[in-house]
Amino acid sequence: MVESFPRTLAYLRREKKISQKEAASSLGVSQALLSHYENGLREPGLEFAVKAAKYYGVTTDYLLGVTADKSGKRIAVSELPDAGEGRGGQAGESDRNLMQKRLSLNSLGFLYDAASRLGSAALMDETAAYIGLAVYKLYRYLASEGEVKNSFFLLSPQEYEPLCDAEIKRTEGNIKRILREKGKGEEKLRKLPPMDLGFLHENYPDYEQSVLTLLHAVGERLDKLRRL
User: Fold this and answer.
1) In angstroms, rounded to a whole number, what is the distance separating the alpha carbons of residues 167 and 164?
2) 101-124 pLDDT, tens digit each
3) Is residue 172 within 8 Å of 130, Cβ to Cβ?
């Protein structure tokens, strides 16, 4: 069973505002067994997954993490918040491009806001640097196709890529250190709730669909690599 199943199962019960005992009774299992399922200590069979999906009014695909939409339907561009693609965008842009743009920009907006909840200026600086480095690299890749003169940039094509890669790794280390040490220095990080389905649903309803869809897509891509 996929790793997200226990979290989704527990989230759906809390969303329904029922106790573990009530849910277990309706699903035909003991409260102890349901608790094991929700905590990932035991793996249920397909029959239980189908019964749970029906009980909570979602598809098995959603319950098993195959789709980010409860009904299993494909998400339309119009259902995602407008990420401002009209400004400087390309006329007649395809729905696929618009979808990818909204997913990325909405997810970035969520990450900046979620990081700011920790109250660390250092973390925000490193977050901005990390994302900025990725933007810089992609800009240089695209610019190379447009034959932009190297004088437009401070670094030559031979210099920027290894330096960017090294700085990205350094920034990743700084971010992990700040989170690991929880601001033991001058800053003391505020506590961030578990970034699960409930957190997204309750605090970021506008970003929820974008973030879940992007996480699912990347997760599938990585899973394919793992299976090679």
Assistant:
1) 5
2) 888 888 999 999 989 988 888 899
3) yes
Report pLDDT digits (tens) over 52-74.
999 999 888 888 776 666 766 55
DSSP 101-141: HHHHHHHHHHHHHHHHTT--HHHHHHHHHHHHHHHHHHHHH
Cβ partners under 8 Å of residue 124, min gap 6 = 112, 115, 116
Per domain, the residue ranges of the chain are 4-63, 95-227
Residues of the chain with pLDDT under 50: 87-89
Kindly report the CATH number that applies to the domain delimited by 4-63. 1.10.260.40
Would the CA dihedral through 142, 146, 152, 155 be positive or negative? Answer: positive
Q: Which strand (E) or helix (H) includes residue 198?
A: helix 197-203
| 108: its two tokens | 């970035």
